[in-house]
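Course assignment 3, question 2. Fill in each field.
Student: A.L.
Task: Predict the tertiary structure for the chain below.
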Amino acid sequence: MNLRGILPFAHDTLRKVVRPGDYVIDATCGNGHDTLLLADLVGINGHVLGFDIQQQAINATKTRLENAGVTPQVELVCASHAFIPKYATKPVRAAIFNLGYLPGGDKEITTTADSTLESLGHLMRLLEVGGVIILVIYHGHPAGKLEKDAVVTFCEAIPQQNFHVLSYNFINQKNDAPFVIVIEKRKPRQS
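Answer field:
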């Protein structure tokens, strides 16, 4: 048996859920790795909506997408993921967040609990049945610890009749190891 690392697990989950032609969201583009994966998965007939609050991240993502030749199916927005409802125009098949700060960037600029919870609420309403929201949570910094606590509390309260919520983490790792939460929308039960 070979347990998957945090990011490979998140990416494997996207590969199992996202299909060509889907509408998906990268809520935190960062350096563009997840955006590129999503663009490949949805193909030319799909659409990726990518957000980041830092122009540096948008520029890095744009360069990565241009180098791969997948810019036609991607729309990048330099804004908080809290603005998802302003830009998202149809049901969403999948969304991914990498919470924390931009790798190689200013560690003082981080995602926040308020904007993350606001965007989660919007995405849960937009999510297709069988679709997923993936949260990769990096909490090895003060703002990250606050955000982690708020996100975990929020996710623990999600109604089980409407969503499955999974936590994937390695419990024997030190130094605030990152972990993943996956929220899957369930088909409503008939009474």
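Instructor remarks: The domain at 6-185 is CATH 3.40.50.150 (Rossmann fold). The mean pLDDT is 93.
Grade: pending
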